[in-house]
Amino acid sequence: MEEKDFFYTIDKKAAAEFKDRGSKFIAYAFPIDRVEDFKKRMDELKKEHPKAVHHCFAYRLGLDGNTFRVSDDGEPSGSAGRPILGQIDSKQLTNTAIIVVRYFGGTLLGVPGLINAYKTSSALALQVTPIVQKQVEINYQLEFDYTRMNEVMMIIKQTNCRVLSQEMQLFCQLKIGIPKNRLDEVLYRLNDLRCVEIKKVL
Predict the structure, then answer these.
(1) Does the global pTM surpass 0.85?
(2) Closest CA to 91 of 15, 19, 29, 137
(3) 181: number of Cβ within 10 Å
(4) Cβ proximity of 178 and 135 under 8 Å
(5) How confident is the model at residue 136 (pLDDT cuts 50, 70, 90)?
(6) Which helix (H) or strand (E) segment is 163 a member of?
(7) What are the C-alpha distances in Å from 114 to residues 15, 22, 38, 104, 111?
(8) Model confidence pLDDT, tens digit, residues 40-62
(9) Which domains does the chain have, with CATH numbers?
């Protein structure tokens, strides 16, 4: 599998509603970077919708496509989580989660009806949020003397690196995400400054 320089995800939350024979399906799509982000959002939605009968979900994380989870949360097996994941995958997204909250309307929809409802509500949520292309980044930590600040920041700016965290005292510590396709150039330029210590962050 070739290594990618970019990936597709969504950059903000979205919600959409689908109704079928009295049942209401509210799909919430949101970007996540870690499983913890997903858990937090799930807790919030369970508080927000305490009377819902199901909170079904799917998410996919990371660039290799191997980190994903689906849950039917009590619906018939394969009728909820898989169709939700199918929508994430049909748009080739990662770092994306969808939780569909269901309120039961009194009529059983059957497995085909459920698959359609979870699939449609998820598709609608993804339609109302912009899909963005993001650079694959490799994280590094930099340590340097405060006097080199301007030179370091200039390289970061010119090469589209992202500052993830910073501590500025007499001695500065920066955590940055370097675009994968510019890694060699950035490391070369930072090494050129001599007094910058560079460490890869896992």
Answers:
(1) no
(2) 29
(3) 14
(4) no
(5) very high
(6) strand 162-168
(7) 18, 13, 23, 11, 5
(8) 999 999 999 999 999 999 999 99
(9) 6-133 (3.30.230.30), 136-200 (3.30.70.240)
